[in-house]
Amino acid sequence: MAAGRTPVLVGPTAVGKTAVAMALAAHWPLEVVSADSRQVYRGLDVGTAKPTRRERALVPHHGLDLVAPGERYSAGRFARDAESWVADVRARGRMPVVVGGTGLYVRALSEGLFVEPPLDGWRRHALERWTAELEAHELVRWAARLDPGFHGGGRQRAARAVELALLTGHPLSHWQRIARQQAAVQPWYVRLTVPRQVLHQRIRRRALQMVQQGIIEEVAAALADGAEAGAAGLDGVGLKEAAAYLLQGGDRTQVAEAITISTRQYAKRQETWFRHQLPPDTIVLDATRPPDELAAEIAARWRHHSDQKAAPVP
To answer: Which of the chain's termini has less CB crowding within 10 Å, N or C?
Structure first.
């Protein structure tokens, strides 16, 4: 095991992350830390595509079934919980592998949580008024001058960089660097991807299976237990479409199609996030290949990575 590094397997929904994680169990004594913001909710197994009971019996999973629908579970809470899970898995001599598609969870765990220092309210409001009057290109130029670590972004991000640099005396990249030093894991990223048409086919197949396996009934049970439609846990893709059908009526045969459309849009956002937010050394693998083959390549690359870290410096 490469000291200080933790494999983090990411990719859009339905790309095949769970299958690859299960195949990795043939190579490592692993335990999965789920980085999925929907799988924390109890009673929504079908609607959140949780690993099956058999899969969980073969490979221990952490981060599933933590709260009831309607209860908030934040990225910060996930990072704190996941830190203890990772430490516990390592203490037992096993390999923690983070698996999931929720970018904010992955970032909170691997980059730490940026805690904003106290800011003077009056000065902050004055700065907000000043930045609001600047043209976008001027605001970006100021952000780049005040923060060498600013690599572009929208108006809001630029204003944030200017604000923190002027109000704290340190650029945003400084505070982010401190947060990373306190992060729970040092990630070793593997991103799974497939051609869009293939992913769309997998999403449609999964949506049909969800309806067949009882996503509507799961949501009905959650609503009967007092959860509100649109509340935390029921606001996720697939679940909100099932809730809409239950509350508004309509054609049950169209629920799978509605889930398919929403899931495709969500997967596109996930792919965009991972493509732009992960570091350049992220390993990107074509997940049209069989899970066993992908797992073998991941294990081989991990061995190579470990050997490089262990080699003495000449």
So the answer is: C
Of the listed ranges 16-30, 83-97, 124-138, the one predicted with least confidence: 124-138
For residue 140, the domain's CATH number is 1.10.20
Helix, strand or coil for residue 6? strand
**Amino acid (1-letter code) at residue 235:** D
- Supply the Cα-derived Rg of the chain in whole angstroms: 22
**3 — pLDDT class (breaks 50, 70, 90):** very low
Average pLDDT over residues 75-85: 90
Task: Please tell me the distance from the alpha carbon of residue 258 to that of residue 279, in angstroms, as a whole number.
Answer: 34
Task: Identify the domain boundary among 150, 181, 212.
Answer: 181
**Which residue in the block uniquely carries the two structure tokens 């390993």?**
283
Closest CA to 192 of 270, 129, 305: 270
Domain count for the chain? 2
Q: What one-character-per-residue DSSP string does 240-251 give?
A: HHHHHHHHH---
210: containing domain? 5-112+182-310
Question: In whole numbers, what is the pLDDT of the chain averaged over residues?
Answer: 90
* Residue 238 half-sphere exposure toward CB, CA atoms < 13 A: 29
